Hints:
The protein has 22 helices and 17 strands. It has helices at 4-22, 26-40, 42-45, 50-62, 77-87, 97-100, 110-114, 118-141, 146-149, 162-170, 175-181, 187-201, 204-207, 231-239, 256-268, 279-285, 296-310, 374-387, 391-394, 478-489, 494-503, 541-556; strands at residues 70-71, 74-75, 320-325, 330-335, 338-348, 357-366, 370-371, 397-401, 407-408, 425-429, 440-443, 452-453, 467-469, 473-475, 507-520, 524-526, 532-534. The chain has 4 domains: 4-182, no CATH class; 195-301, Muramoyl-pentapeptide Carboxypeptidase, domain 1, CATH 1.10.101.10; 313-368 and 436-522, Beta Barrel (L,D-transpeptidase catalytic domain-like); 370-430. A hairpin with a 2-residue loop joins strand 1 and strand 2 (74-75).
Amino acid sequence: MISPKAIRIALALSSSLYLSTTGMATADIYSDALKARLATDTNSLSQLTNTQRKQIIDFYQQRDFRPVWVGEYGLNTRARRLFDAFKSARRDAMDPDEYRSLLLNSKWNITAGIQHSPGNMAKLETDITLGALLYGRHASAGRVVPEKINHSVKLKPAAEPAARILRNISTTLHPEKYLESLQPRTAQYLRLKKIYGQYLDAPQAELRPAARWPRITVRGVIAPGMRHSAIVLLRQRLLGSGTGTSTENTSTVYDAKLAKAVKNFQKKNNLWPDGIIGPSTMRILNASSPTPTASPLQRKQQIALNMERWRWLPENLGKRYVLVNQPEFKLRIYDTGKIIHQARVIIGKRSHATPVFSNKLSLVVFNPNWNVPRSIATKEILPALRRDPYYLQRHNMALYKGYTGRTVNPARINWRKVSRKSFPYRIRQKPGNRNALGRIKFLFPNKYSIYLHDTPAKSLFNKPARAFSHGCVRLQNPQVLAEILLSRDKGWSRTRIRKLINRGRRRIVKLSQKIPIYLTYFTTWVDNQGNITFLKDIYGRDQKLNIVLNQVRIAMK
C-alpha cells in the first residue's frame, strides 16, 4: 500500500515534470485549471443554490483563482487540518462520509493522485471546498430540513452563510476549529455530546444491532428495603453508564439510591413515581421497542437525533428565554444560562400535536375571554347543545351570529337542524373561574393559534403523562411566569398582579422587552450532574427523523 507521503512526493514530481515541459509558472497552471473547472463543473456545484454557486465563483475570482487547499507539493497543512474536522464529525453525531464522499474520486483515489494533473488538482480543490461548505451548513443548521420531516415541526434554522464560511476557512491555518465552532454550544448539547462520546468509545459488541439489555424477571412487586435477586440487574440498568457497563455494587438490597433512580425512571416514563417496582415498571424496562431501555444502540441513536434537533435552534437563544420541552411536559425559564423557574405543562394530545416552533412572547392577558375554535365548537359543543340547549349558559358562554353579529339565545335554536358544516355561529367564553384559559394567557405571534395559558383543570397536572389539550400549552402556576416577566419588564409586584387577577376584568399587558420562547421536542435531557433521561417519543417524531437521516446515509453510499 502506498503511503500518503509517497503520494505527495509522486504528486510533486509529476507536477514538476508537467511544468518543465510547458514552461508555465505553477501558480498560473493551478489558477487556470481551477478557473476552467468552476466554469464547467456543473455536477459538483448542482447541490448548491444559485447564490451559493455565485459566492464560490466570486470567492475564487477575488483570489485570482489561487487554490486554498493545494499547492506545488499537493495538499497543504490547512487541508489536512480540515480533514481532521471531517473525521471528528462522528463525535457530533454527523457522518464523516457525507463530507469525505466528495473526495473519494480525488484525494482518496491513490491512482488519480499518482497520475497527477492540474485538472485533478482543481477537482480536489473544489471537492474540499464543497465538503467544508456542507459541513458548515450541517453544523450550523442541521443535516435535514425540519419542515420536510414533519408538518408540525415549524423551524427554519439559519445556516452559516456560504460567503462567511469561505472567508473564514481561507484566512486561518486552523479551519477545523472554525468549523467545529459552528456546532451548538448550549449546555444541553455539550452534555449530550459527552455522553454520545461514551457510546462511541464503548466496545462495539455492546452496540451491535442485536444487543439488548438482559430481560429482568420480577414476580410480584419490590419495595424499597426489600431484597431481590433482580436488584443487581436493575441497578446496572438504571445506575450504570448507559452503555451496558456494569457497576461494582452487587448488593441485592433495594437501597435508597436505587429507589431514587426508579422514581425518576417512572416519572419520565409517565408512571406513578412511587418507587414500587411492579408489572408496569418492568414492562417498560423490558420493552423491545425504541424506549429508554430498549438497547444501548437505540439509546445512542436517540441521543444522535436530539443532537440534530439542537442544531435547528439559534446559536444564541437569548439572555432570558422560555423553553417548553414537550416530551418532558415541562417549562423552564432561563436567565443568563441558569434555570430560574420550572413548571409542569399540559400539551396537545396525539390527534392535536403541539407544533415545534419559536417566536417572542409579547403579551400577557389577565382574565381572558376564550374564543372557542370552530373545530371545538362543531365537534364538541354542538353535540352537547343538542342534548342540552342551556349548555352555553351553564359554562358562562355567549353565542354570536357570525363573527361580527349580535348575540343569540341558544335556547331558541333547534340544534338538531344545525350541522357541523353549516354552523353559522361564534362562541365566546367570558372571563371567570371556569374559563378554559384560566386567569392568564401568554401570547406570542404564530399562525397556529398556539399560546400558553392557565387552566381550571388543575388536577391534570398530577398525571405523569399530560397530553390532553387541543395543541395549546396549559401551564401550572402561570402567575409565577407573569410575576417573572412583569417584575422585570414593568417593575410590578406580586400584589399588583394578584389584584389584576382578582378584579376579574380583561386586561392586556404589552411587554416592552419581548422574551424568546421555544416550543421544543427533545426526547433526551441531561441534568446538571450529567445524568441523562430518555423520554417517550409521544408523537412519533423520533422515528420519522431517524428514517430521514438513514435515507441521507444510504444516498451517500
